[in-house]
UniProtKB/TrEMBL annotation:
Transmembrane segments: none annotated. Residues 13-82 form the HAT C-terminal dimerisation domain. The lineage of its organism: Eukaryota, Metazoa, Ecdysozoa, Arthropoda, Hexapoda. It comes from the Eukaryota. This is HAT C-terminal dimerisation domain-containing protein. PANTHER family: AC-LIKE TRANSPOSASE-RELATED, PTHR45749. GO terms for molecular function: protein dimerization activity. InterPro entries: HATC_C_dom, RNaseH-like_sf.
């Protein structure tokens, strides 16, 4: 039924825009949901593959003895490296040292 109504290009984004612009989401709710899932799937797969690729780079033969917590932390730092580069390490070290300090200030 939808093929008879649709007049446009055959790519997913064009069909999804057509359904939204013509307010056909109530008439064809399943088609809209499927098109949204298909339109977002490649991004999800690529980011998952990138994460596993980074994990393989981090966990080399020499680092097999590290704990799971440290491996997870290194993986997050490697995947989110743009956020890690924007951090002020001096302030983080100072804050950490003040919180973990055993000396009492009088």
């Amino acid at each position: 039924m939808f093929i008879r109504v649709y007049e446009g290009e055959d790519d997913i984004i064009s069909v999804l825009k057509y359904i939204i612009e013509k307010k056909l989401t109530e008439v064809y709710p399943t088609i809209e949901i499927v098109l949204r899932i298909i339109a977002t799937t490649p991004v999800t797969v690529a980011s998952a593959e990138r994460s596993f690729s980074r994990l393989n780079i981090i966990k080399t033969y020499l680092r097999n003895s590290m704990t799971q917590d440290r491996l997870s932390a290194l993986a997050i730092l490697s995947i989110e490296n743009d956020v890690a580069h924007s951090l002020d390490y001096c302030a983080l070290i100072k804050d950490f040292s003040l919180r973990k300090s055993r000396k009492h200030q009088f």
